[in-house]
Write a structure and sequence with these properties.
2 domains, alpha/beta, 6-stranded mixed sheet, about 40% helix, 4-stranded mixed sheet, about 375 residues
Length: about 375
């Protein structure tokens, strides 16, 4: 019951954000503003080791520093005093070998980071299980899979080609159920694509170079299916399915993650939630004008990806090449050195995404207060449901 209540609160939150976007700060769709301005939060990697690092490990860490992945590493020598806040992380580990890597989610918001300091100091606030994405030996193969996988490469390629949102469908393993949800997503997203167009003012921003022109501005979508048994996507699956408490327990149904911007995912749709209304709510949020420019005040969480988003979007730098084939640490070192929901489309001409009306400041304040009230009520309901 608690999990369903949480999902309901998420749905209401997304809907309220759509309403609040009737007072846009700019005339750029959310999905595009996010691509150009919302830098992904950094994941935290804690590397436990004993004594001095060997040369191969040093080379591997040097290789990571050449990548664009949003992953910050912290070295902890287990032979010395464990820093405050890291003891619980170390105590929860049962390392088969050292060095040992623990990858943790970023903070939910920058405000939390300001209050509590570095992510590794959050031991008393976050439970280790809820904040951990993946743990295992620090090897070249494991580090490769932490920051890169075929699905994440496909996501970045699609977004940088102009796709507004990539829908990642984590399969249930039931072919008929998974095929039905994929067919629904592809069909409904095609209807939206054909029935909605961005207003001319948004394209004018590109023409005036107020937006980067390296990535086409258009309404388009793609769907990627992800098998829970795909070993190449093990870390990515952990990252997705551990993003909310209890989500991994719903293995009997498919789960859809809408991904946009610089690899940001809106909270997932589970099983029967993959329906017209919920998908339309997500699309309305993404196509609406961006009235709230602060990333952390918008729904969703950032994915861990090895992508030079800034360079790729602005065309000022070369996007990072696909991660090399990692056979050993030494070989790695050699390679490094050398706002309303879209209306159903008809067969007539596409409908332009309506420009949101600008409400008076007092109305905007009222809407914000309403949103906070709904969130507070949702949290109260969740607490009641968990008692």
């Amino acid at each position: 019951m608690g999990y369903k209540v949480k999902q309901a609160v998420v749905a209401i939150t997304i809907a309220l954000f759509g309403v609040m976007r009737t007072t846009p700060a700019c005339e750029i769709p959310v999905f595009r503003y996010a691509l150009e301005c919302w830098q992904p939060s950094a994941y935290e990697g804690v590397v436990f080791h004993k004594g001095p690092l060997d040369e191969d490990t040093k080379r591997l860490l040097t290789w990571l520093n050449t990548r664009a992945a949003n992953l910050n590493l912290r070295l902890v020598n287990a032979e010395e005093s464990i820093p405050t806040g890291v003891e619980k992380i170390w105590a929860a580990q049962h390392p088969r070998e050292l060095p040992w890597l623990v990858v943790r989610y970023p903070y939910p918001s920058s405000q939390d980071a300001q209050r509590h300091g570095p992510v590794t100091d959050m031991g008393d606030t976050w439970t280790v299980a809820s904040s951990t994405v993946w743990e295992g030996p620090l090897t070249s193969n494991h580090l490769h899979r932490v920051i890169h996988s075929p699905a994440r490469e496909r996501i970045s390629r699609d977004i940088l080609s102009g796709i507004s949102c990539v829908w990642v469908l984590v399969e249930s393993g039931k072919p008929e159920v998974d095929a039905a949800k994929r067919d629904f997503l592809e069909g409904h997203l095609k209807t939206i694509k054909e029935g909605v167009r961005l207003p001319e003012v948004s394209h004018a921003w590109v023409a005036e170079e107020r937006m980067a022109g390296a990535v086409p501005l258009k309404v388009d979508f793609s769907v990627i299916s992800l098998s829970r048994q795909d070993s190449a996507e093990e870390v990515f699956l952990h990252l997705l399915l551990r993003s909310q408490p209890g989500l991994a327990q719903h293995a009997e149904v498919p789960v859809a993650f809408p991904v946009f911007g610089q690899g940001r995912a809106i909270w997932p749709l589970v099983g029967d939630q993959i329906n017209t209304g919920m998908v339309d709510n997500a699309i309305a949020f993404l196509l609406g004008f961006c009235s709230c420019e602060i990333k952390e005040l918008n729904p969703g969480f950032d994915l861990l990806m090895d992508v030079d988003w800034y360079g790729s979007v602005t065309n000022r730098l070369t996007a990072p090449a696909a991660p090399p084939e990692l056979v050993s640490v030494a070989s790695v070192a050699e390679q490094v050195d050398a706002p309303a929901a879209p209306a159903p489309a008809s067969e007539s001409a596409p409908v332009e995404a309506s420009r949101a009306a600008r409400f008076p400041r007092g109305v905007t304040t009222t809407l914000i207060v309403l949103a906070l009230a709904v969130l507070a009520g949702g949290l109260w309901i969740m607490r009641r449901g968990e008692q």
